[in-house]
Write a structure and sequence with these properties.
- This protein is mainly beta and 138 residues long.
- The chain contains one helix and four strands, in the order H-E-E-E-E.
- The chain has a four-stranded antiparallel beta sheet, with no helix packed on it.
- Strand 2 and strand 3 form a beta hairpin.
- The termini are far apart.
- The structure holds a DNA duplex (15 and 15 nucleotides).
- This is WRKY domain-containing protein.
DNA sequence: CCAATTTGACCAACC
DNA sequence: CGGTTGGTCAAATTG
């Protein structure tokens, strides 16, 4: 399969056309809130239950078992990138610095300040999820 | 070249 | 038992 094969030229114009563009565009539209930690994306899946995309981030640290997941509506056009960030895990190293979000926890954080605190935190513009149970209702 | 990032596949848990 | 969803890892690709 090599031998040159001139036929390999470009005949493929079927797909692979707006894949990068769309992805790039989507990426551009989304704005991930910086928490002050470094994350590494390790997966992305479409959650049918909510009809939204979910991205999985893991703390870059080795001893940091903290994980972050971001979910956002799939459709990009129409504007509005509502991103829901959910933190999971327990940090243990210093922050990377940078405007976290608030509370620098200057007080005597030590002890167990961020042991079980960043659990299920929701950022972004919450519309009416005051207490949406989540039942697609039938 | 390296690192980062992406997509797919695989696995586990749950109903 | 099977199907399904969610979640994670690995490989491939791009910059």
């Amino acid at each position: 399969m090599s031998t040159d094969v001139s036929t390999t030229s470009m005949d493929q114009s079927e797909e692979g056309l707006n894949r990068e563009d769309e992805q790039e565009m989507e990426r551009r539209r989304l704005k991930l809130p910086e928490d002050g930690y470094e994350w590494k994306k390790y997966g992305q899946k479409f959650i049918k239950n909510i009809g939204k995309f979910r991205s999985y981030f893991k703390c870059q640290r080795e001893n940091c078992m903290a994980k972050k997941r971001a979910e956002w509506s799939s459709r990009s056009d129409g504007e509005l990138g509502e991103i829901r960030i959910v933190y999971d895990g327990v940090h243990s190293h210093d922050q990377h610095s940078s405007s976290a979000s608030n509370s620098q926890e200057t007080s005597a954080s030590s002890s167990n300040a961020n042991q079980y605190n960043l659990l299920t935190q929701v950022l972004g513009g919450d519309h009416q999820s005051t207490s949406t149970p989540r039942p697609p209702h039938a």
